[in-house]
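Quick one: structure for this chain?
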Amino acid sequence: MFSPTARAALGLALGLVAAAAAAADPPADVKVGDKAPAFEARSDADATGSSADRFGKKWVVVYFYPGDFTPGCTAQAKAFNAKMNKLAELGVEVVGVSGDAVASHARFKQVQGLNFTLLSDEDGAVAKAFGVPFGKGAAVKARDADGKAFEFTRAGTAARWTYVVGKDGKVAYKNTKVNPTDDAQKVIDFVTGGK
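Got it. Here's what it folds into:
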């Protein structure tokens, strides 16, 4: 087979090829006014969610968050949940996206009583399409609806960024400095023009 030196050289070469491929395919730089990226992802209901079913038909909030069951992400999800009647009245659909698995999303949605869709982006493809930074995953300790402790591993972690896609299918709003507790209200303020 290969000598230790040859194996090390091969490993280095493969690493350089992977780094070059990643550099050749950097994350998108999606700006306000750009056409919203098309994507498909599995939902908390283990069904395929497609941007084609949503974009260009209504206002759509696509909010990226680091992960289920973390304090900031829980606060952000609860804030959207609390404002859902107003958002629905305005014709706005909310979709949360993170690197958690479908099963984690289903559990998080059930524990928090969420009334909107969560999409699983374990490989970071949706985040990358929107230009959202996506890093390594993490081990998570949480509690279910009965207070029972459990653990799971998140595949990857997205930055907390929020987009609003307009009825024309273009990005109308982008926030890369999201405060979890007021994100939903900022979206409402944007859609209503601050009224």
